[in-house]
Amino acid sequence: MTTMSFPHQVITIGVVVLGTMLTRFLPFILFPENKTPPAYITYLGNVLPYATMGLLVIFCLKDAVTRAFAFPELLAILFIVIIHKWKHSTFLSIGLGTVFYMVLVQNITF
Questions:
Q1: Whether 70 contacts 29, CB under 8 Å
Q2: Up-side HSE of residue 57: CA atoms within 13 Å toward CB?
Q3: What secondary structure letter does DSSP report for 84?
Q4: Mean pLDDT in the chain?
Q5: Is the separation of the CB atoms in 93 and 80 below 8 Å?
Q6: What span, in angstroms and rounded, lies between the C-alpha atoms of 92 and 49?
Q7: By C-alpha distance, which of 97, 36, 101 is closest to 64?
Q8: Taking CA 35 as the corner, what is the angle to CA 31 and CA 40, rounded to the nearest 5 degrees?
Q9: What is the pTM of this model?
Q10: Higher pLDDT residue, 6 or 60?
Q11: Who contacts 73 (Cβ-Cβ below 8 Å, separation ≥6)?
Q12: Contact by Cβ (8 Å): 75, 61
């Protein structure tokens, strides 16, 4: 295993800091608060949250469809939907759904 020299470590940290700052500050530079953003940016702001959630659901279920039984995943999804419709709290439904799913996969054999 090779180690980085001190100057290499400093340069690496500097590049990471600059990259992080660029991704954080660039939207505010490109689209100042006093100007209306372009229509495609507004469109993306409206559709990307839903597309991201859909992508996450598909990613989480990609291995479930290859197994014979996907009961833990299906039960957890049903549980999340019920909790969310009941309490209207994203944090609560995701948190309790995660705990419920982990209890299912750790303690119950399907």
A1: no
A2: 13
A3: H
A4: 91
A5: yes
A6: 19
A7: 101
A8: 60
A9: 0.58
A10: 6
A11: 60, 61, 64, 101
A12: no
